[in-house]
Amino acid sequence: MMRWAVPAGIVAGGLAALAVGAGLASAHQGIPPGQTPATAWGFVTNPVPSLFLLAALYLYINGLNNWPNPTHPINNWQKGSFFAGILVLFAALQSPMEPLAEHYFSIHQLQHLLVRMVGPLLLLLGAPLTPMLRGMPPWLRKGVVRRLVRMPPARWVYGKITNPIFTVVTFLGLLYVWQAPGPHDLAVHNDWVHELMHGTMLISGFLFWWIVIDPKPHRSRLHYGLRVLYLGLIVLPNTLLGAAITFQEGLIYSAYQELPRPWEGLSHLSDQRFGGLMLWVPGDMMCIISAGIVMYMWYQREMEENPNPPLPLPKEEKGDGDDAGPNRR
User: Fold this and answer.
1) Alpha helices in the chain (DSSP H)
2) What is the DSSP string of 264-286?
3) Radius of gyration of the chain measured on its C-alpha atoms
4) Is residue 175 one of the residues assigned to a domain?
5) Span of 25-34, 194-203, 218-227 with lowest mean pLDDT
6) How many domains does the chain have?
């Protein structure tokens, strides 16, 4: 039952960060006057994402230290993946990339790629379920989480939000909503909408990859073959959206024309086209490569379950016996 505490916690934590972060964030006006792209760090104006990332890091490390005889040990590769995911989300939400994204559409698309796809994928590859649960104080793990996961309404919600149809529709639907000119420009101008954009993208990314990855002891409800299809479902919609932005002859988003730019060498139209490519190519490649890895894991699983499959019997050759032909004497 504890296997779904992490996705439920992700949703709750994301909503909490959204509510608190939107209240603390300054108006989205890009790089503040007197600062440069090297000095405008996002955590100065809104430290809430850093606090959540540090809390996740503490729970993970503390859980590993409080797990003397692990039933499914976390190897160094998995630990490195989790730490890399923390760094990726920090870079996307707290580094100078955050204020620069208000000036450049292409940097904003890079930020969304890290928030939606790269960060959640790396964190889940770190198998965080057991370490983060063991890293919680006993009153929280036993008094809150354990009671929560035993509640029928909570189990019903978990079943709905981790349904593969829901996760893929939500993942693509939110992408299309936030790339529409109206919501996108509003997010650049408005604190609350901007935090809502990042919060929903982060949550949808975790739920999307939760279906693909098996962070022990969790097991995806999808067979490996269905996971390949699941990953393939988002390639065409992602390609269509990215290509539509890349090959657009005019400017789609007006918000990026209102602030002065640190680097004026890149035109607004070129910036928009680079952003379309950033949405299109890396997103498609991540899904294609992930599908290939899943197929390899599928092959490995089949070989483990059936290491010596029976070989086909050779066809009998005609010889000099009774069936040698009518000329036999």
Assistant:
1) 5-24, 48-65, 76-94, 97-100, 105-113, 119-125, 129-135, 138-140, 146-149, 152-161, 164-179, 181-189, 191-210, 224-233, 235-246, 268-305
2) -SS-HHHHHHHHHHHHHHHHHHH
3) 25
4) yes
5) 25-34
6) 1
What length does the chain have?
A: 329
CB atoms within 10 A of CB 158: 18
Segment 108-145, tens digit of pLDDT: 999 999 999 999 999 999 999 999 999 999 999 999 99
Residues 6+ apart with CB under 8 A from 53: 86, 89, 90, 94
What is the value of pTM for the model shown?
0.84
Owner of token pair 């036999």: 328
Which region, left, alpha or beta, applies to residue 30 given φ > 0 means left and ψ of -120 to 50 means alpha? left
String of DSSP letters for 22-74: HHHPPP--SSPTT--TTT--GGGT--HHHHHHHHHHHHHHHHHHT-SS-SSPP
56 within 8 A of 126, measured Cβ to Cβ: no
Between CA 149 and CA 128 the distance in angstroms is 17
**Are 242 and 73 in contact, with CB atoms under 8 Å apart?**
no
Confirm whether 250 is domain-assigned. no
* Residue 167 falls inside a structural domain: yes
CA dihedral over 14, 16, 19, 22, signed as positive or negative: negative
Q: Please, are residues 224 and 298 in contact by the beta-carbon 8 Å criterion?
A: yes
Establish if 297 belongs to a structural domain. Answer: no
Give every CB contact of residue 210 below 8 A, 6+ residues apart in sequence.
Answer: 7, 124, 162, 167, 218, 220
CA atoms of 24 and 47, how far apart (whole Å): 8
Nearest Cα to 184, choosing from 253, 101, 98?
A: 253
Residue type, position 157, single letter: V
Angle (CA) 148 54 115, round 5°: 85
- Residue 22's domain comprises 2-27+40-222
Dist. CA 76–CA 324, nearest whole Å: 66
